[in-house]
Amino acid sequence: MFGLFKKEKSDVFTAPVTGQLMPLDTLNDGVFSEKMMGEGYAIAPEEQAVYAPIAGTISSVFPTKHAIGITSDAGLEVLVHMGLDTVEMNGTPFETKVAAGDQVKAGDLLSTVDVAAIQASDRDAAIVVIFTNMDKVKDFSPIKAGPVTHGDAVTTLTYAG
Fold first, then answer.
1. What are the residue boundaries of the PTS EIIA type-1 domain, all occurrences included (predicted)?
2. 69: nearest Cα among 85, 84, 57, 82
């Protein structure tokens, strides 16, 4: 009645990898730390497997395998970016397990990453999750830095409208 009891739509985002959770502004990369692509969070990985942080459809797998796009059922575009400046590695440290059009659930394996190879190339191996169409986002809970295990809840995002 008049929308007074209309429940807001929200999604819980999980850790795509085990490691140290950190807010974007702590990254040594202006595009992410200044949130030019959107809001989100990052994890310094302690393992090689990278999992879907939310359910949806794989919208893109970059040719260099360093990033995977997921579109949630609510239409939120989510970018899972593996490592900083890793596009220049031409896909060598990544083994993608999904393709565009695949349906995934939170926790499904997206990719494996050779973290040691990224670090040996003097790059940051951070796994970054970005909400790229922030116009769909009303709010999300703060990111609390600290250890996480893949699958742990990281933030709850509430959709606009």
1. 29-133
2. 57
pLDDT computed for residue 1 by the predictor: 45
Give start and end residues of each alpha helix (H) in the chain.
30-33, 115-120
Instruction: Determine if residue 24 is left, alpha or beta; phi over 0 gives left, psi from -120 to 50 gives alpha, anything else beta.
Output: alpha
Determine, yes or no, domain membership for 116: yes
What residue numbers bound the domain in which 55 lies? 10-29+36-159
**Does 116 have pLDDT greater than 70?**
yes
> 45: closest CA among 96, 80, 71, 72?
80
- 141: which DSSP letter? P
Residues 19 and 151 sit within 8 Å (Cβ to Cβ): no
Active site residues: 81
Q: What is the C-alpha to C-alpha distance for residues 4 and 46, in angstroms, rounded to an integer?
A: 45
**Which of 161, 136, 133, 131 is closest to 13 using CA atoms?**
131
In a domain, 119, yes or no: yes
